Amino acid sequence: MPLNSYGVLSARIIDVRRETGGTPHHQIHLVDDDKRHYRAAVNVESSQQPSDLLYFAADNFQHPLTAALPPAGSGWNKLASQPGGAALDYLRANVVTREQMRPVPPDAEGPNNDLADFLDHYVHRAQQDPTATAYIYGEPWGPEDTPDKIFGSQPGNGVHNIHMNQGNGEQYQQDDGVWQDGGLLLHLASENRWVAVFLAFQTQAWHTDDDTGHALPAPEDTSIRVVAAMVNPIGGGRENETITLLNTSDHTISLAGWTLADAQKNTMPLPVPAIAAGQTLQIPATNGFQLGNDGGQITVLDPHGLKVHGVTYTAEHTSTEGRTVQF
Fold it and tell me: Where would I find the LTD domain in this sequence (predicted)?
C-alpha cells in the first residue's frame, strides 16, 4: 500500500543541523507564513546495503509541475497522488533518471564530497535568501504532544520520506506507490530560478508498475533516447510536429512494437522497422499524439510497455515558433 498521506510543505528555511548516529538525517527547520514550525528529516544513509544514497541536483530546474505548486509559505499541502497536478513521480513525470544520479556517502572527511555537504550548499543558500521558498515533498507526521526533538519548536511537526517512494525491495514494499515521491525544490524568487534535489536508495528499482509502484523487470534494451522535438513549428501546423530519437548503442535495434506516449498517455507506434547504431530518427507526430505548447512529455515504451526513456518540456521551451527543443 502507498504512504499513509502525501503532500508538499511550502515554507522558509530558518535552520539546519546534521544528525549522526544509527539512522542519520539532515534536519531542516522551516516556518510558514502563519508562523507554524516544521522539521524536514532528510535521509542521508540507507539502513540496507549499499548504504550510500543516490543523489542528483538540478541548479536550474525547469518542469511544468512548478506551475502547479501551492502558494509560497502556505505550510503543509496534501496532494492527490495522480498526474496533472503538483504531485511528484521521478519516473512518470520524467524529472530524473537513474543515469543522472550518483551514490554519495553520508559524511566524509574534507569539503564538498558527501551528501551532507551537498545538501548544506543548497539549504544554506536558501536560508540566507529572504525571497527563497522551500517545497519539500514527502509524508507528514505530527502534530506531536511534545516539542520537536531537534529544534525544540512546539508542537513537533514535520515531513519525512523525502526520497523516491516506489520500486522498494520486499522489506519496504508496503510504502510503494505512484505519484508520491519525495524531494526538495527551492524557489529563488530573486533570481527567478528553481533548484531541485532528488534522492533514492540504491536498492530501489527504476521501472515500476503504474498501479502499485512495485518493482518491474528492466527493459531489455535502454539505448533509445529522445534527443529533440519540434513542438511549435512555424505556422502552428500539427503535421509539422516531430520527435527525434537516437540509438546510443553499438547495434541495430528492432522497433517492432515500440511506441511513444504523451503526457495524457496517448500512444503512437514507431513507423520504421529498426534504427541502426548511432543513427537518429525523426518521427512526425500523428493525430492523437499531443505535443502541447503549454508543456508536455514524450516517453519511449518498448514492446512490453516498459519505459525506456522520457523527457519533459515547459511552455518556456516552446515559446519561440520554429525552434527545436533539445533534450
Answer: 210-315
